[in-house]
Amino acid sequence: MSVPEQLKAASVGLSGMKTIPVASRQLGSWHVAISRRIRTPLELAKRYDALAGSWARTAHHFRLEDAYQEPLIASGARVALAGTGVKVLDCGIGCGSLSIALDRILSNPIAYHGIDVSGKMLASAEFAMQQAGLSPKLKQADILSIPYTDQSFDLVMAAHVLEHLPDPCRAITEMVRVLKPGGLLFVCMTRRSVFGALIQLRWRTWAVTQRQGVEWLRDCHLSNIECLPVKLGAYAGQASLAFWAHKPG
Question: Which of 7, 39, 76, 242 lies at 20 to 30 Å from 47 by C-alpha?
C-alpha cells in the first residue's frame, strides 16, 4: 500500500472517532460543550502540502530553532545523546526546526530520522537540514503508524503534532514503541492561551494545559515527567509547552 493510500485508510478509520473539545461550561444543571471535527491524516497532509512553501518563513518568524533549545537542554538531551551510534526520530518533522535546534546544542554527530504526512514538508525539511549541515533520513508516514521497528531510537520527539490528534495517547504509545528502554521522549504542544485559542480554531487542535500533557505521558507509562514553557518569538510569547519523560528501562 502506498503512503497516500495508507493516509486515506487512516482517515477512513478515524471517521467515527471523537472530536476535539474547544470549550465547556456548566450552567446550573446544563453542561454546554463545543467541539470540532478533527482533520484526518489525509486532510492534514494536503493542508501542510499547501503551506510547505511558507512554513520555513513561519518557523523563522517565531524563532523556533532558538525557542526549542532551552527546553531541549533542560530535558537532559545532551547527556541522553552522548556517545556514538545515537539515533533520533523527529515525528511530524515539518521544516526540521526541532532537529536543527537539537543539533545546535550537541557536540557529537547524530543520525537524524524524520517522518511527516506531508511529502512537500519533507522536501522543505531536507533542504533546511542540509543547509544546517545535516543529512537526515526522511519518510512520508503517519505518527500513528511509525515505520520503524521496536526500540530503534535513543530520542523520539515531536513539535506541535500531538494536539492535532483526537487521541494523542495513541501517538505517544507509538512513539514509545520505537524508543529504546531508558530513552528520552520530548514533545512540544500549543498551550491554553489567547494565542493558543487562535491556533485551536484554525487547526482544530487541543489547547493543552500542563496537567493534561502530564496525564497523557503518565497514561503511556512514561516516568520522570517534566515540563517547561517554550518562549516563542514575535507576539506568541509562551504559547507552547515542552514535555519530556523517559521510557522505563
Answer: 242
Q: What share of the chain has pLDDT > 90, as a percent?
A: 58
* Cβ 114 vs Cβ 143: under 8 Å: no
Contact 220, 169 (CB under 8 A): yes
Rounded CA-CA distance 238/215 in Å is 20
Query: How is residue 54 written as a grid cell?
Result: 511558507
The pLDDT value given to residue 180: 98
Handedness of CA 69, 70, 76, 78 (dihedral sign): positive
Q: Which residues contact 213 (CB under 8 A, 6 or more apart)?
A: 187, 189, 227, 241, 243
Tally Cβ neighbours within 10 Å of residue 129: 23
Residue range 66-121, pLDDT digits in tens: 999 999 999 999 999 998 999 999 999 999 999 999 999 999 999 999 999 999 99
More confident residue, 59 or 22: 59
